Amino acid sequence: MAEHISIGLLGLGVVGTGVAAAIGERAQALAQRIGTPVRIDRVLVRNPNLMRSGISEDFPLTIDPDEILSNPGISLVIEAMGGEHPAHHYISAAIAAGKHVITANKEIMAKHGPELLRAAAENGVMLRFEASVGGGIPIIGPLLDDLAANDISAVNAIINGTTNYMLTKMATDGLDYDTALREAQVLGYAEPDPAADVDGVDAAFKLAILASLAFRTVVRDSDVFREGITHLTPSDFCYAKELGYVIKLLAIARRTESSVLARVHPVFLPIRHPLAKVDGVYNAIELEGDLVDWAMFQGPGAGARPTASAILADVVAIGRAILGGARVLPSPLLDEALAIETVDDLETKYYIRLRAADRPGVMAQVTKVLGDLNVGLASVIQKPVDEAGKTAEIVITTHLAREKAVQQALQQVSALDSVDEVGSLVRIEDRIE
Amino acid sequence: MAEHISIGLLGLGVVGTGVAAAIGERAQALAQRIGTPVRIDRVLVRNPNLMRSGISEDFPLTIDPDEILSNPGISLVIEAMGGEHPAHHYISAAIAAGKHVITANKEIMAKHGPELLRAAAENGVMLRFEASVGGGIPIIGPLLDDLAANDISAVNAIINGTTNYMLTKMATDGLDYDTALREAQVLGYAEPDPAADVDGVDAAFKLAILASLAFRTVVRDSDVFREGITHLTPSDFCYAKELGYVIKLLAIARRTESSVLARVHPVFLPIRHPLAKVDGVYNAIELEGDLVDWAMFQGPGAGARPTASAILADVVAIGRAILGGARVLPSPLLDEALAIETVDDLETKYYIRLRAADRPGVMAQVTKVLGDLNVGLASVIQKPVDEAGKTAEIVITTHLAREKAVQQALQQVSALDSVDEVGSLVRIEDRIE
Lengths: 433, 433
What we know:
The structure is a homodimer.
Chain A: E1 5-10, H1 14-25, H2 27-34, E2 38-44, E3 61-62, H3 66-69, E4 76-79, H4 87-96, E5 100-103, H5 106-122, E6 127-128, H6 140-146, E7 152-158, H7 161-172, H8 177-186, H9 195-198, H10 201-215, E8 225-226, H11 234-243, E9 245-255, E10 259-270, E11 282-289, E12 293-300, H12 304-324, E13 339-340, E14 347-357, H13 362-372, E15 377-384, E16 391-398, E17 401-402, H14 403-414, E18 419-428
Parallel strand pairs in A: 1-2, 1-4, 2-3, 4-5, 5-6, 8-10, 10-13, 10-18
Antiparallel strand pairs in A: 7-9, 7-11, 9-10, 11-12, 14-16, 14-17, 14-18, 15-16
């Protein structure tokens, strides 16, 4: 046994610096909890001359990835670079070189996770990625270990803190989308280019990972139906409240006997649902299992220190496995053959908001289109919009209906002369345990 | 390697039957997830002739514990009897005989956990107890593994579903204590003798376990300050609401550099606190750690299937460790030397409700007593109680104060001629992240 576990760290940005600082400040506690010391022996950076606060001058920086990937002394590689390239290549190379790997990289795990896990198993090494979903919230571990006896049937999650913050502000302070976004940017919760968050890309990466592990099958980010929050208006939040709902960007994956449907989009959620109470930048993941019924995990979904918490948990797990003499911790098997459903197959309830001429017969036209396609109405609200009384806002909620039928109906409705605009379509998730 | 992992099950009540049924119905999935089959080869019962639904006739029942404890073929013992005796003796004997042990027994882990964990380590076997706290909610695993890199500073938990159900009904439906208890009993949430729940005994067992693991020290149930919910009245719930709080029976453990204070009692919790939103029979455990900041775990805290979920997670973990060739999973070390504080050392805010004569000068007397003991007032409400206007209810909230001073003040206040009764003292926990 080596006298310490030697780590190569790829990247020294926010996450990498957090990991280096956390390992440094708790070296003794980690050694005690693992049973042997761990040490960062090499750090790959792009610019070794950059000033970095909290990183001492004698930190072993390098610009040559081979000093880590081809270094026989390093047994564990922590990838904290982010992005697909070249991180994907480095992770593959580390696994091929027989090194254990920890990554926080949701994009790589969503796109290439199944192949990397197989490669890790074939090479007798561990690949762990607790930090890739939910920041510091334990979720990969509970899913693979603590709930291992369950057949998981559903994942319902708030896994993008930026959009949850924006939606909370839009609901509680009545902000419009642009104002909420600016506020999130000022606070550092949203990037200058917010697309990855507000379009649901980030959440789709994370959902692909969760769905794959939960259902033991391969779900890629490209399998996830995705719709962002950019089209939501203050009036949607007013109607949601009036109807007893809050609006959340949910990541939802459900399996049937033979298939999986994974989707990220805004939903109307009953105010009493546990996820409806999760406000601000926090994340929460709810799992439904046949034994446990449900369990929910909540906490900070991002940030340097929470992410370091997750990465260091993986360091401890790998360290203990090495020290305990285990061959390796088993890789999750993604061998269930489940078909990927499209959102067309979805059956749920819908909220529809549209603007139409405020004259007799219009409502009849709209509801006839829906009725002809078997979309049953649960409630209808009609309100005049302008002083002249020429335009009305019509808000419809439906009973359970097929997405495909609803989309067809909306096409036909928007083609009606009397209808100006279909403003919003939001799916309603009103199943509460 | 044996062709299967052979289990001896102690007890076939609600939990034992749930475990037997769950293992039976998912034998193949478990074999796949562990890497080898598991099988229950012997079940200890008191009465083998009892009819048991869901248990087949050829189930290998025995009334002789030695058929399990002295059976060299059995490598894993699951204790699902409950109660301290004789379960404690059986667990000790199983460990001494070199068998891995899984227990759902909070009483035994709270009273004898440190000794049993040491014995397990010395005998090279694993002792796991995920089901002892929070039913199906993953919490022991996350605490020992997923948050292993953190220094945990606080545990705040709703870990008794019975009392949380009762408090929810008292708050939302205005029920008094007796009515809420009867309703809980009718629904099967409360026992005919409810003392273990309503007096906080059950929660104190669980908190002792959580605090020990969180702070890596020995906290026994006898170290936990404990106060139940029997003295709460509908008016306390009205005042709580008026002041922006909900009432929860919380299990709270906090550590300082050198000491631990663990306590179970009703608290006033700000309505916006994540734990304030946990209603009904559910459990939720919030942990504060230096890296993760906080994480909360929520779900069903009891029931045969959720408990089976937790026990089977331990079966999978032990099975994988055996199969992976690990020596054993490490036992948690409880070697931090921390002093146990008493509740006298507590500094928090307080809600005090008392009845006094409704005449000039009484309020001055009461507030002088508090002031002389350095208990600062945050708010005072005085309301007449009877038609004649002879008695008033005085409700006081304090700033941060020492428990010892507050208790002294209340003794002096209740000795005042003008004061009829000190009705309630409830501690206020208003730190929100």
